[in-house]
Write a structure and sequence with these properties.
Number of domains: 1
Number of strands: 0
Distance between the termini: 18 Å
Low-confidence stretches: 126-137
Structural class: mainly alpha
Radius of gyration: 15 Å
Order of helices and strands: HHHHH
Number of helices: 5
Length: 139
Amino acid sequence: MILMNLSKKTIACVAVIMALFAFSPATYAQRGDTAAMRQRQEAMMQKMTTDLKLTPVQVDSLTAIQKEFQPKMREIMMDQSASREDKMAKRTTLMDERNKRVQAVLGADLYKKYQDWMEQNMPQRGGGGGGRMGGGRGN
């Protein structure tokens, strides 16, 4: 049971991180996507800022954390020499570190609201599996 909960938490954390990275302006630029996608990313960040009543300092801190962790996550995902299990372990460690930093910026109460917001507002990715992705409860 504990292992199953840990797996669900890990998957949820992976989903949150991937969803955040999917809305990164650098990701769009690298993929050559349109200005419309960048506008959606900016609108999503503005909605999160408004819904969670984030301060400018919190927004700047979250943006800095995202910019720090995005290339690290991309490097792990692109590593052809690592096994799937190794990649998952590295991603889990990286996400735990990132989540601790986000929680330090937001505080425990706002961090829970942030997780709920991510779960409710991030678009579903990938094939059929149902449900929205995001909002791990790992901390």
